[in-house]
Amino acid sequence: MTARLFVVDDDPDHLDSLCDLLAAAGHEPVPFAGARAAIDAAAGDAPSLVLTDLRMPGLDGIGLLMEVAERGLDLPVILLTGHGDVDHAVRAMRAGAEDFLEKPYDAEHLLSVVERTLKTARLKAEVARLQHRLEPEEDLIGDSRALDEVRRRLADLAAVDIDVVLVGETGTGKELAARILHRRSPRRDGRFVAVNCASLPDVGADAVLFGATPAEGAGGLVGEARGGTLYLDHIDTLALALQPKLLRVLEARRDDPEAAFRVVASASRPLTQAMAEGAFREDLYYRIAGYVLPLPPLRDIASDIPALFAHFVRAAAARHGREAPAADFRERRALQAHHWPGNAHELRLAAERYVLGLARPGAGTAAARPGGGVPGEQTLRDLVADFESREIARVLDQCNGNTDRAARLLGIPRRTLNDKIARSPLLRGR
Ligand SMILES: Nc1ncnc2c1ncn2[C@@H]1O[C@H](COP(=O)(O)OP(=O)(O)OP(=O)(O)O)[C@@H](O)[C@H]1O
After folding, report:
1. Is 362 left (phi over 0), alpha (psi -120 to 50) or beta?
2. Model pTM?
3. pLDDT value for 376
4. Cα 75 to middle of ligand 1, angstroms
5. How much distance in Å is there from the Cα of 140 to the middle of ligand 1?
6. For 380-428, CATH number?
7. Over the stretch 94-110, which tens digit does the pLDDT of each residue have?
8. Residue 385: half-sphere exposure toward Cβ, Cα within 13 Å
């Protein structure tokens, strides 16, 4: 199977002959005279393997290995060492080299080491992919009507080939929803590649996104999403300079169904707003906004908060090796009364503090909800009385204040109704 390999050597003759050997074996070698250039290119469009000389001026083979590890690049590296360079070879293996070959090496032997390394890397990727598919499916927690609606929409959208924009405040589960879309879509064999547009570097974002060699089409992170899902988080912050290129790549998807991928983009504000401010291109919007799905903030689905909190409590308890405490009625009410500007992120932290015994759920939060009062202090009796008063007020309105008819409709004696009216501050002044 043809593989793209980076070959690094400061000796041009040796570099040429190595590349010829690899090309003759059916691979696609990319030559580099220095380690630095190879690493920068790998960060944009990773090859299947790097074959590098150990001793080079500037960054040497060990330095290259260390940078690969530091940048979290999952790249097998084979080192070519000088004869008798045992110390360096040992250091290289410790630094994470896949293998090393002593010069002068036998061409056959080099090719067999390359093939073996490529095979191991493919197997590792396959195992990771299968493991991912075996992981328990994370689903949206909550059964409020709004969340049910989101769930239904996600199921409909997953089945069809359409790009989706998810709009919601931070922590409203946009990434979770995007992963659900990916998992349930016909393209789930491809990868789910998440790109946080807000944390792309100022310099070099182009290569990270599209690859270092634009002539070859989309490489980089966009290339990795081929056949899968490209999740563009915080797309409203994508630099204007990168937007036309993204548009071109998305348009090119149509020409090559094999390379096609679904775009799921997310934003914390409507993209139409970013467009009106001139921060987002209209043509790109109309390319990706196949369907715009809003995700509700926690304060709008307060009935779901206790279940989500319990989920985070269980996760935090497992992580810290503690018992999972259960919030009591008052605590659950306090949680529901909070404004939760950080939504699930904030709720997760509250759960962690609760598990560690650092704070009660909702402690110091009730007043944070605008106009929310202090429901955390209410008892069940208060809540029932509150509900009863509202129901009586509704029926009284319906009967134009006629207590006889209202008592009949409510199924209680008129005297009882009058008593309740006299005792309720809400009803007394009516
Ligand atoms: N309804 C939900 N059910 C289960 N887990 C949820 C739910 N909502 C959010 N989460 C969890 O809360 C965490 C934060 O959610 P997520 O990262 O999806 O939010 P986001 O909207 O993408 O946030 P940001 O805007 O900050 O990127 C994740 O671990 C996610 O799995």
Report:
1. left
2. 0.62
3. 46
4. 30
5. 9
6. 1.10.10
7. 888 888 898 888 999 99
8. 14
pLDDT band at 374 (very low <50, low <70, confident <90, very high): very low
Closest ligand 1 atom to residue 168 Cα is 21
Kindly list the protein residues whose Cβ atom lies closer than 6 A to any atom of ligand 1: 138, 140-142, 168, 170-176, 233, 268, 308, 344-345
User: Measured in angstroms, how far is the CA atom of residue 147 from the centroid of ligand 1?
Assistant: 13
148-296 has which CATH code?
3.40.50.300
Q: Probe ligand 1: pick from 143, 154, 165, 176, max atoms within 8 Å of CB?
A: 176
- Identical fold at 4-132 and 148-296? yes
Tell me the CA distances in angstroms from 386 to 138, 390, 398, 426, one per residue in order: 37, 6, 19, 9
Can you list the alpha helix ranges (DSSP code H) found in 277-379?
282-288, 305-320, 329-337, 343-355
With 70 as the cut, is the pLDDT of residue 19 above it? yes
Stretch 316-329: mean pLDDT, rounded? 89
Overall fold of domain 4-132: Rossmann fold (3.40.50)
Task: Give domain limits for the chain.
Answer: 4-132, 148-296, 299-373, 380-428
Residue for token digits 């797309």?
235
> Considering only the top CATH level, what class is 299-373?
mainly alpha
Report d(CA 38, CA 292) in Å as an integer: 40
For the chain, how far is it from start to end, CA to CA, in angstroms?
83
Among candidates 254, 294, 302, 303, which has minimal Cα distance to 271?
A: 294
Please tell me the distance between residue 177's alpha carbon and the centre of ligand 1 in angstroms.
8
What are phi and psi for residue 363, nearest 5 degrees? -60, 125
Mutate to test the pocket of ligand 1, among 154, 175, 196, 264 (most ligand atoms within 8 A of CB): 175
What is the CA(94)–ligand 1 centre distance, in A? Answer: 38
